[in-house]
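Protein folds are increasingly written down as discrete tokens. With that in mind, we are printing a sequence and the tokens encoding its fold.
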Amino acid sequence: MASSTWRIRSDVWEYLRYSVKQLALGREMHEVAPDSEVFRSLRALETIELYWAGFGQRYVAAIRKQIEQRQFSAALEAIGRVVHRLRGEQPNEAAQEPMEDAREAAEEQNDRDTRPRFEVLVVDETTANDRDEMMDRGLRLRNTADTFIYDYVIVPSMEDAIAAVLTNPNILACVIRPGFSDHTKQRLSRDLMSTIELAKNDRDPVDAPKTLLSSVRRVLTLADALHELRPELDLYLVSGAHVEDLAGVLTHRFRRVFRREDHLELHLSLLRRISHLFDTPFFDAIREHARRPVGVFHALPIARGGSVISSQWVSDLAEFYGLNLLLAETSATSGGLDSLLAPQGTIKKAQDLAARAFGAQRTFFVTNGTSTANKIVHQAVAAQGDVVLVDRNCHKSHHHALMLTGARPAYLEAYPLNEFAFYGAVPISRVKQLLLDYRAAGRLDEVRMITLTNCTFDGIVYDPERVMSECLAIKPDLIFLWDEAWFAFGAFHPVTRRRTAMAAAKRLEERLRTDGHAREYRQQRERLVDSDGNPAADSVWLEERLLPPPDARIRVYATQSTHKTLTALRQGSMIHVWDHDWKRGAEEAFHEAFMTHTSTSPNYQILASLDLGRRQVEMEGFKLVQAQLDLGTALASAIARHPVLRRTFRVLTTHELVPERFRESQRPMPLRVGLAEMWRAWCYDEFVVDPSRVTVEITKTGVDGDTFKHDLLMDRYGIQVNKTSRNTVLFMTNIGTSRSSIAYLIEVLVKLAQRLERDRLDIDATDILPPEVQLPPLPDFSCFADQFAAPAGLPDGDMRSAFFEGQRWDAVEYVLPPQLRERVAAGERVVSAGFITPYPPGFPVLVPGQVITSDLLAFMRELDTREIHGYDTRRGYRVLKSEAPPSV
């Protein structure tokens, strides 16, 4: 499949090196059959190498010929050259190349160049001589003063170009010349061909004037497809004629349009653009500050190591973390360092570069985590009395933010996965129904915002474009906050990107501008609203896929824990914004909220790491995320197929995590079938599962998830995991996961499975959690108590008043669980005075002002967890007194 070509390529070259080495040493028969694994590997590489720079199909053909002629030593040296490049190693000084002409000498020198290297895709149907000339010219244009170097990947057709950007993450720029053909002549896999077709048809028809030549329209179609797949790619057009006329038409698709003879200008443009991607303004500023001799006369004794280096008691701080950490510490905002609270220089530039990378209109850095980022957005857009629709299963920071702002939460229930003791996601039908309920009650104007978690901790991903489209059809000015704490990586893969908040906002905005959408919207409104303006029955609105009005306001915010899934220091987070009303009051409100929650002494090391993390994902994010998804799929497949592991563990697939009514696709693990199958699922299913998260059911181990995590994985083998439920463990791959770490985890799981099988007969049967035991149902939100509840039976409540009521010592009492169960069973409406948050599942099971029910207490009774925030193990639950004195 396309997502694993990087691994196939590496493995095949390594295999060839091993096999040909055996032939060269005389350890294998010197006759290699045409249908042998060696020749099958060479045939596969002849296709793969078309899409990678440096060697190509002729190089592979030359190796095949050497093997056919029994020149095994020469073939081994040629293969070794490729393997050295793939490993990032310098070639052996003593190696002899198979040919010793000028081109071979130049290529050897190219291999020894240690500068950062990227690849440039050229799309044009050329001759072998033309390709050689282009390669030679590229080498001649190199200058020793250049920071970067590049190699060409030259393909003849549109389909080959799409295959190249799907399979080769080293490509960072593309030069299109109109002479390309439409179809590939390569024998590509069925999955890759299907993916190519999906990529070609993913966009609406090119909106260029119909008078354009068909050749120009082909160029635009290819450019749109490549941009949609890899937005970080720079696109250049090289044409032989009429470049002046083409430039005006194609400016928004291509960075520049060149004539064919402008080789130097194209070369300089390629290098210049890469330098812009590589630029890290704030990190460069902090590094420069660390190198400068300065006098410290401000309130930070640790700056420049002043209070550390000369101390006999804390000098080990510098020894452990390094001197640069101390040299970079400062409370100054001058000298190029800038202020996070009012950025005008390097921080402002770094945030602008991040907005470009993540596809946002604007981006803001946060140095105290996404908990704070969520509070900033809530305060910026919601006021006291506003109604906010919120997933009850969301992170606790949203609940606390609602309490701080005074907005009234109306909780949405996600579908429960009771068998595994965690929640899924909120169906769009429930969101629409609640909006329709507020409309029927005449309170729709009070609904300000909806916040949902995309993707959830367990990897369940929404379709944000659909959610926003259908909600805006009911309330055209609704604001959306997507908590993407675990989905920052999503922007850097062509399939996952489509379900990020910013990509969805962009696509939605583009769609609303089209004449076709306006026509479809008018036709639908005729079905939904009669001539007198009365809406049809709710059932009609629920059955249709609703379309937003063309003048709907796109107001979308996304908060991301950059440090959780990308390279950044702990607590490094970002807020991404796509807001049509930014200049109509939203900017000032956001700035005030940002000032409220942001420290005047932000951590500069965190800011620098965010700047560097942005550079990394623009330069190699596609490569890293591609590997992350592939390794997650490989882990799931290994557990599901291993004869020992599958007796003890069960990988939860899409079939277990997403009910059938929410998905059109039928594959339990779409990416295991191929990238095209994943693409289809992520296009059409209401919910999908992130392949980089592997949830494993462990009932047959006889231990609960918390014990498995701490006592078995961590204490015995040093394997760290974030999340467990009563009977599941979540394994997450990320951009730092290696193939070796996956192999180690599988090895450990096999050892545990074998040991547990041996020990099972010795374990007391009462300690085993048999498969047939039903875990307690996950509790729905009950309701707010009457004094805090909304009128007309709607679910929102005044949580802020309940919270502060619960802070009065004379208004609360503590009740132990047995007594509380008795009081609730007797019919008393007992009200929670605070937040009760068990880990797991990690969300507030009780919030201030919520009525405590028997179902909720039964769930809490069965929880087997070491950590419950807000619950006093000695005194019990904190509840409001039944007849509390009035507030003063």
Q: What stands out?
A: Confidence is low (pLDDT under 50) at residues 768-772.
